[in-house]
Amino acid sequence: MRRFLASFVVAALAVGAGAPGAHAKDSLVVGASLFTDSIAPTGGAYITLSLCYQTWDPLIARDSDDKLIPALAEKWEAISPTQWRFHLRKGVKFHDGTPFTAADAKFTIDYVIDPKTVYARKTRIAGVVGTEVVDDYTIDIKTAKPAPLLLRGLADIPIESKAHTEKVGFAEAHKKPMGTGPFKFVEWVAGDHYDLIANEAYWDGAPAVKKLRIRAIPEGATRVASLVAGETDIIEEIPVDLLPSVEKRKNLKVDAVESSVSLVQTFDTRKPPFNDVRVRIALDYAIDKQTLLKQMLGGYGSVLDGQLVTKSTFGYNPNIKSRPYDPAKAKALLAEAGYPKDFQNKINTLSGRYLSDVDIANAVAGMMTEAGVKTSVNVVEGGVWSQLDRSRDQGPMYQVGWFSVGDADFNTVWYTEVGKRNYWSNAEFDKLWAEARSTLDEAARLKAYNRMMEIMHEEMPSIFLFGLPRISGRSDKVSGWKPSRDSLLRLSKVSVK
Prior knowledge:
alpha+beta, D-Maltodextrin-Binding Protein, domain 2, Dipeptide-binding Protein, domain 1, four-stranded antiparallel sheet, single chain, 24% strand, Dipeptide-binding Protein, domain 3
């Protein structure tokens, strides 16, 4: 199948060698690797949030490197350990011309924290107990206890129009977004495309293009072919085996960044043999991560340094390094643990959710088998995966990617009792996690996270594989584009010659 796809792309390269652009210079067409069936801010997937932020803005935003920057709030400060004050940008208007004020911010946040509201990213601002409008351009947000993650959490909450939503209702407002964002809604066809036009009055300057289309192109070879043919200007997630097809073209460019997604393979430590830390560490030694990075990820991204978070994430411990590839040591540890002969193992994985996910799982399984652990790979369909995830029944091992979006809290939570997805439990780890999210002292938070990374390295609840890359392709006529660590499409400054 891979040979067929590669051949398909090569054919497309030949056909599209001199293909003219399929659209006007004042328009931008993006080929998205994933699409959702909703553009409502209540949805959970990051592709949903990516689409939301074409039309809405948050109070505080992340940039493409996961750093927090002002958006609808120009500045903010903690006026007490449990109360933050946000000074809002003046002169901002919604797409219907009504002014943005603190009433809209209060309306949105009150809606999100309402216990009756089903809002996937509600936990991002967990602990918020109320809001208070100080004046039209100042709002206070109150928390039950110190909330160091509030600012980063607000970057996941698009601010909606109070007047418009009360007029048409949430259901209609979420079908046809009307926000303060850089683009205005034109048409949404679930599973196919999203059309928008520039908001010429955008507070951060009018977008560089007049029209934007985001197309759903889930198949990697088809995305690459569309870029070659000039049907798209930018495509997300170039499959690694098709990278040469893009790199050899003079009029195409490859852009890559290490994302905030850490790819790991998690053990079920509740049952033999993986209740024995020696077995878990043995399999860590059995994997040649550097070779996998080169062969399966094209050398993009990075090998995780023996810990869950990437170097760019707050909480990274620079004193921990990845265990070296040492199959002899792996076999010795297995024998010491009482497993000198083969035992059966299985790795569950999704297909296409993460870059080269099935290929990586198969390669790891082969290395484990060589070390004396007969390992197979089980590709699981999305619906079944969700059921197994909820019931904590993913088998002896499963492969998953955890977003940090810049702070270790967001992916370490899944290893705590609070996260309700843990197979491994450590009382000190849970205590440190709770402490780190309950103080505004950044030095204390970093110290807690650094110790948590040590605990994970020592006890190996997962094999820490890679900080996954985001690899995109673009026409050389495109400028102002770079892929983002959090996978959100930031397109307002992108232009096409």
